[in-house]
Design goal:
The protein is an alpha/beta fold. It has two domains: about 325 residues, TIM Barrel, CATH 3.20.20.70; about 80 residues, no CATH class. The chain is about 45% helix and about 10% strand. Helix 7 links the parallel strand 6 and strand 7. The longest helix is centred in the C-terminal third of the chain and has 32 residues. This is Alpha-hydroxy-acid oxidizing protein.
């Protein structure tokens, strides 16, 4: 934070706005309508997005005085690795809507800060390339991999093997997106975020996925040798009863067979707790379940032997009128009782927000839209600064509230208002 005030002395403006409201306003202006609809948008009438922010406002920080806050610690340990601040870059798919090579730029930003970047399964750059970019900044810079559990078991295994081979520190299994939510901003524009191939690079770079596409094309051409590839993809979509409402938006110019196959197999709505036991046996990586909102599910996750959970409502993008993550955390943290790591995201946009989440029992917070807005405004530097600002404000808030260690915060630091 010193740097930012020193810049002010020299009348240098920061690269990206230092408050979320202005960051969002400027990013909206910088983005295409399609990018803004997908990234800035939420489910339904936006109630969950609003609830995430309102819940934070119902907690007030109660500062303590005269406690020597000259030295402060922001470091935390996650799965055997120390990270410099309790903050991660959340997985964000189809990022190339905001900037070409989005994931590579964000990886660069995260590596510069030394905090983990959770690679999206719906990335626009293959995980190997992002890992290489991060290694170019700092060898072994922390990276996690986020998995959407495909209907194809071999594809799941292939993605897990790739995550292991790029030395991911954990696999995050996102469980709140077995189907895409009702997102009016995208629907009203007739825009399917993946339609032009955005966000399918983990798939098209995967040998198993390419095999699946090829198999499908072969099967289709065997039946009707005279039809074109585009027509085959349409045929598959009809026979597979895929999300038809979105399919109408696919343009003819892009690799339809790959996009269509992706839509058909990227997630498995039939997933249940029974499947989870199988996953444990299939990877040596720590497993983190993302999208936990009910305390009973949190307890069940502990019983299932996973290593962590992320209390998340997907940034308010899945269910309209869902519980805010701060309200959910209030019940989940005592239910977990320190047995596994508890992370949180959705609406956590400032250092004070992170402070409140930690005081309510979270071990760390993932930041979604702020880093995407920074990216849209100023590329890798913008993504880095947006998150660096949150960390700087956290450091100040910690000290000003009379605390010296993020790992020692508890509910006594807050009052409900
Ligand atoms: C997401 N999120 C997400 N989560 C995930 O597990 N895999 C993904 O591919 C995506 N894709 C994605 C795209 C966009 C544009 C957004 C905004 C979000 C959810 C993300 O990881 C995180 O849960 C939320 O972004 C957190 O909320 P905030 O910080 O954006 O409010």
């Amino acid at each position: 934070q010193n740097d930012i005030y020193t810049a002010g002395v020299h009348r240098r403006r920061p690269r990206v706005p230092t408050d979320f409201a202005e960051l969002e306003r400027r990013a909206k202006r910088a983005m295409s309508a399609r990018a803004w609809a997908y990234i800035g948008g939420g489910a339904g009438e936006g109630r969950t997005m609003a609830a995430n922010r309102q819940a934070l406002d119902r907690w007030a920080i109660v500062p303590r005085i005269l406690r020597d806050v000259s030295e402060r610690n922001l470091e935390v340990e996650l799965f055997g690795r120390r990270i410099p601040a309790p903050v991660l870059f959340a997985p964000v798919g189809a990022g190339s809507l905001a900037a070409p090579q989005a994931d590579r730029l964000i990886g660069h930003a995260a590596a510069e800060l030394g905090v983990p970047y959770i690679f999206s399964n719906q990335a626009s750059v293959p995980m190997e390339a992002v890992a290489a970019e991060m290694d170019g900044v700092t060898a072994g810079a922390p990276r996690w991999f986020q998995l959407y559990w495909s209907t194809d078991d071999d594809l799941v295994d292939s993605l897990l093997a790739r995550a292991e081979s790029i030395s991911a520190d954990a696999v995050v299994v996102t469980l709140d997106t077995t189907m895409l939510g009702w997102r009016p901003q995208d629907l009203n524009l007739g825009s399917l975020p993946f339609a032009r191939g955005e966000g399918i690079a983990q798939y098209t770079s995967d040998r198993r996925f390419v095999d699946i596409v090829a198999e499908r094309l072969r099967a289709a051409t065997a039946e009707r040798p005279e039809i074109s590839v585009g027509a085959i993809a349409t045929l598959i979509s009809i026979t597979r009863n895929a999300p038809g409402r979105f399919l109408a938006n696919l343009t003819s110019a892009q690799p339809r067979a790959a996009v269509q196959t992706f839509l058909d197999i990227y997630s498995r709505p039939s997933l249940s707790w029974d499947d989870l036991a199988g996953l444990r046996a299939r990877t040596s990586l720590p497993i983190v379940l993302k999208g936990v909102l009910h305390p009973d599910d949190a307890r069940r996750a502990v019983d299932a032997g996973v290593d962590g959970i992320i209390v998340s409502n997907h940034g308010g993008r899945q269910i309209d009128g869902a519980i805010s993550t701060i309200d959910a955390l209030e019940e989940i943290a005592p239910a977990v009782d320190g047995r596994i790591k508890v992370l949180i995201d959705s609406g956590v946009y400032t250092g004070a927000d992170v402070f409140k989440a930690l005081a309510l029992g979270a071990d760390a917070a993932c930041i979604g839209r702020p880093h995407m807005y920074g990216l849209a405004l100023a590329g890798a530097d913008g993504a880095r600064d947006a998150v660096a600002d949150i960390i700087a404000e956290l450091d100040l808030t910690l000290g000003l509230a009379g605390h010296t260690d993020v790992t020692e915060l508890d509910r006594d630091a807050l009052r409900r208002v």
